[in-house]
Amino acid sequence: MMKDLLHKLFSVSMALLLLLSTISWTVEKHLCMGRVMDMALFNQADDCGMEAGLALLGDTSIDNKHCCDNEAFTMQGQDTLNLDISHFDFSQQVFLISFTYSYLGLFLETTDKNIVLDSYPPPILAKDLNILHQVFLI
């Protein structure tokens, strides 16, 4: 039961790791006077509306005093994946094989050997020492 749960948990975490490493991430921030007003993941951040408000007031100096700014950070995902072990160099192959071998070794079932002591019977007690000394397990 515990082995199956750990196996499923490991499988899901590896699938998520593969998914997160192959997706391109874009984070965009809208800054107004140095303060972050909005953040967006995968799309454009909403503006604060200051430029639209100044345009309604008829302020034409918006180009001179631009206080809002948009910043975007894009992290490109991995496009090519090495699916064949022969593309790895020797040290990566050694690490991968030894890690796999040691990981799979965690789930091997051990067989306990029964030790038969038929030729050595327990000693015969003349008196019950626990009752004699009044030592009892609680």
UniProtKB/TrEMBL annotation:
In Swiss-Prot or TrEMBL terms, this protein is called Uncharacterized protein
Under NCBIfam families, the record lists: HYC_CC_PP (NF047658)
Instruction: List, alphabetically, the InterPro entries matched.
Output: DUF8199 (IPR058512), HYC_CC_PP (IPR058060)
Origin organism is Maribacter arcticus
Superkingdom of the source species: Bacteria
